[in-house]
Amino acid sequence: MPFSKPENNRRRTAPDVTELCDFNQLGLDFVPAPSYSVPPRKETEPMNPELIEVLEKKISAIVEKYSALKEENARLNEEIQRLSHDREGIKSRVDAILGKLDGI
């Protein structure tokens, strides 16, 4: 049965892409694009060379201190190992002396 209106007889096509949608009608809450984020500010002047030199000196000092502390830590660990070995030797000698005293 044909429709009485000629526009209904036409086959419907997808809506035109350029057609604006009312997102509020869809229940979507969009924020306007400019308020999403502020682009980062580009520096207009290069960084001060004096500041770079100061930073380089501070970083060098920190690296030197780190190296010195690392060496000291290794030395102290060796000393701990040596003292532990000495302690074991002294402990065994004291045990031997106590054994001799028990025998008397």
Task: Outline the structure in words.
This protein has two helices and no strands. The chain has helices spanning 6-9, 49-103. The protein has a domain at 47-104. With 104 residues, the protein is mainly α.
Provide the succession of SSEs: HH
Helical segment count: 2
Percent helix among the residues?
55-70%
- Molecular shape: elongated
Structural class: mainly alpha
Distance between the amino and carboxyl termini: 128 Å
Largest sheet descriptor: none
Mean pLDDT: 78
Strand content: under 5%
Radius of gyration, in Å, reads: 42 Å
Instruction: Tally the beta strands.
Output: 0
Characterize this entry briefly.
The protein has a domain at 47-104. It is 57% helix and 0% strand.
Give the arrangement of secondary structure elements:
Layout: H1 6-9, H2 49-103
